[in-house]
Write a structure and sequence with these properties.
The chain is globular. Strands 1-2-3-5-4-6-7-8-9 form a nine-stranded mixed beta sheet, with helices on both faces. The chain has a single domain, classed as Alpha/Beta hydrolase fold, catalytic domain (Rossmann fold), CATH 3.40.50.1820. Helices cover 31% and strands 19% of the residues. The chain starts with a strand and ends with a helix. Strand 6, helix 3 and strand 7 form a beta-alpha-beta unit.
Length: 276
């Protein structure tokens, strides 16, 4: 496997080619510090963690991936977008970096990928953090428009994109242009297929059912104003022995963007406890 690295303002950027597509990986923070792996949701990229990264790098090596089909990673055509395949690619991308242990943190559907990675690579994943992703499909709040996003959105205005994305944030949050651009850059077919794959993963078995037998420490963070997944369903993660469930008032589905300091604080406390 060939790995190409460039350093830009202290950030190492790598294109790591698994057998079915290039995965973009970025690293921040001390290379000898405990590792945090940040996995984004379906309509995003590793850049969705930008506001949190400076809060984490004082004590951790922070690794972000662009899942296949998102951000700067490759991915079109007949590629598989199942949760298990996405997790496998993430593990493959991490292998050349010399990381022996990592806390896998997933926002939204990234929580499913973090869970699948823990299932596949229990030697690698020491703990799991899930931010605003329902334990099963019963926790999903039906969208106002059952048809979902259009299959051709090239002509949509930024304001129309913001309306499509509104349920991903609390009502008073101003969606940054950069996040609109991330959503716009995703191929709509990839978005649809990946979304269906996430549902299929939950339909097959709930996240608590998957996580409980692994014996991994678990932190679940939920915005109390989440309008994609019922916040009250977060308590179902307590079926995982020793799980910590935290509800954040005043934020919606994306606390990592809406309130990075309040999201980073419990994450860092959890990581310190796990590492200690």
């Amino acid at each position: 496997m060939t790995v190409s690295n460039n350093k830009l303002r202290g950030v190492e950027k790598s294109i790591l080619p698994p057998d079915d597509g290039d995965i973009y990986v970025s690293q921040d923070g001390p290379r000898d510090a405990p590792a945090l792996l940040l996995i984004h949701g379906t309509a995003a990229s590793g850049r969705s963690w930008d506001p949190m990264v400076p809060l984490l790098t004082g004590s951790h090596r922070v690794i972000r991936v662009d899942l296949l089909g998102c951000g700067r990673s490759a991915g079109l055509g007949e590629t598989s977008y199942t949760v298990s395949d996405q997790a496998r690619r993430v593990g493959t991308a991490l292998d050349p970096l010399g990381i022996e242990h990592v806390i896998a943190v997933g926002h939204s559907s990234g929580g499913a990928v973090a869970t699948a990675l823990a299932e596949q690579r229990p030697d690698l994943v020491t703990a799991v953090v899930i931010i605003d992703f329902g334990p099963d499909m019963g926790a999903c709040i039906a969208p106002e428009s059952p048809g979902g996003p259009p299959m051709n959105w090239t002509d949509l205005t930024d304001e129309q994109f913001r309306r499509l994305m509104r349920s991903g944030f609390s009502a008073d949050y101003v969606i940054p242009q950069e996040y609109v651009d991330q959503f716009r850059a995703i191929d709509p077919t990839v978005f649809a297929v990946a979304s269906q794959a996430n549902c299929a993963y939950l339909d097959e078995r709930s996240l608590p059912e998957r996580l409980a037998p692994l014996g991994k420490p678990l932190l679940v963070i939920f915005g109390e104003n989440d309008s994609r997944w019922r916040p009250s369903a977060a308590v179902e993660y307590r079926a995982v022995p020793g799980a910590t469930v935290l509800l954040l008032p005043g934020v919606g589905h994306s606390p990592n963007l809406e309130d990075p300091p309040r999201t980073a604080a419990p994450l860092l406390a959890f990581a310190a406890k796990v590492s200690g």
